[in-house]
Amino acid sequence: MPSWRRGVGVARVLCKGCCRQPLLFAGAALFLVFVYVFAVGSHSWNHNHVLVDSSNIDIAAIIREKHMDVQNSTTTTTEATTLPTVQQLDDDASLTFEAAQKIRLERIQKACAAPDRPIGFVNTLIGTARGNLTYCMTPRSANTFWLQMLRYSQRDFVDEVPQSPLDLDTRQVRTRPFIRTRRYNWKVLSEVEKDAVLNSKIFMSVQDPYWRLWTTYLTALTLPDLWGSVGAKIEAKRPPVRDPLKRKPPLPCGDTVTFEEFVQYVLKAFEPDLQPIHHQCDPCTLPLSYVIKASTAKRDNRYILSHLNLTWALELSDVEAELRQRYIKTMIMENFDRLHDIRIQRCVTFGDLARRLWHSFVLQGLLPDTAAMPEGIDDLHQTVFAERVAMLAQETAGEIPDRRKYMVAAFKHLSPDTLSAVRDKFMMDFQLFGYDPEPPEIFA
């Protein structure tokens, strides 16, 4: 019998008297975590893409250290402490980059080894000569940020050199042809070209599937981004409204889609933006060197940018505040630019769009729900509106204790069957990247 199975058996024996002996329970729990880490570590992943020096990292020791930190910080209370899990450690920004990558890559290895795992795909890759990096594109997961960084590093822009990669026009980095930056479609690469990619340092960016769905709805369906391609399709499937005058119904705008309608569409959709991440960048097909998570982006981004000699781009007094302000301003300016499209003009006015943007920022947790909307919003110039909203977001950043509360409320409003279907559709993403498929605040 393998040693780790014997260990599990011992732990089960230890746990038999848990309810009456809390100290024995804690010891058993710690022992189980050690057994799990030993089991995962005993199955080596034979490829040369783990380029951080993690060979001497003892995850069990880190868990013990974190447990001691919790105990030392709560000596005045008699409440029992909870031993951190490997998943919790993965999202701990105080953990070293190397230790976090060890956890993430071993988790991917385990998920990929499952005999019944679903098939994944690899689509678009961005390669750079500098740093020998390859970025596996994942829609709606920090894509624009990494296109700014990679295109800047290759001087792949047509205007004069900006002061910072963050100054590159966000729409242009997504839509302009790639000249100096290499862009690949994995499916059509020759074996020689694939080998070249596999010999580079491959990375991807991920986030919680529930949060990814929620923010996609807020940024693309409450705002005009996907009104024509997705919103109009959803509205067209609604039962027709009887008109006694038998007038021809107006063309759907796509601007009234509810979150529930959006989720039902996602469950059957094929649009790349709405698919699980492993349908765009499957780490079982494309062995990764690094996985960047939104929860630890500040630390993870800095490490990747060191390969591009671009760490200076994030050397700001308050990186998170700067990125938040830039995001707000970009969202406002891009959406008002869409008003030049006559198909959008017939569906929304300037003032309506400004109010939609405001509410989207509140629901994303970027503005407090108690904040007052600027006066005269219908007549404000878009630049003035952007400056005011960004400034208010900066001033009230500390007044938003829980960015996820509206997301939780939206998912809790769905039926149990729909929630289960969402969980099942994105289950492989949960397993690959260490997210909870049944968050208690949603499924309770």
TrEMBL record:
<keyword id="KW-0333">Golgi apparatus</keyword>
<keyword id="KW-0735">Signal-anchor</keyword>
<keyword id="KW-0808">Transferase</keyword>
<keyword id="KW-1133">Transmembrane helix</keyword>
<keyword id="KW-0325">Glycoprotein</keyword>
<dbReference type="InterPro" id="IPR018011">
    <property type="entry name" value="Carb_sulfotrans_8-10"/>
</dbReference>
<dbReference type="GO" id="GO:0000139">
    <property type="term" value="C:Golgi membrane"/>
</dbReference>
<keyword id="KW-0119">Carbohydrate metabolism</keyword>
<dbReference type="GO" id="GO:0016051">
    <property type="term" value="P:carbohydrate biosynthetic process"/>
</dbReference>
<keyword id="KW-0472">Membrane</keyword>
<keyword id="KW-0812">Transmembrane</keyword>
<feature type="transmembrane region" description="Helical">
    <location>
        <begin position="21"/>
        <end position="39"/>
    </location>
</feature>
<dbReference type="Pfam" id="PF03567">
    <property type="entry name" value="Sulfotransfer_2"/>
</dbReference>
<protein>
    <recommendedName>
        <fullName>Carbohydrate sulfotransferase</fullName>
        <ecNumber>2.8.2.-</ecNumber>
    </recommendedName>
</protein>
<dbReference type="GO" id="GO:0008146">
    <property type="term" value="F:sulfotransferase activity"/>
</dbReference>
<dbReference type="InterPro" id="IPR005331">
    <property type="entry name" value="Sulfotransferase"/>
</dbReference>
<comment type="similarity">
    <text>Belongs to the sulfotransferase 2 family.</text>
</comment>
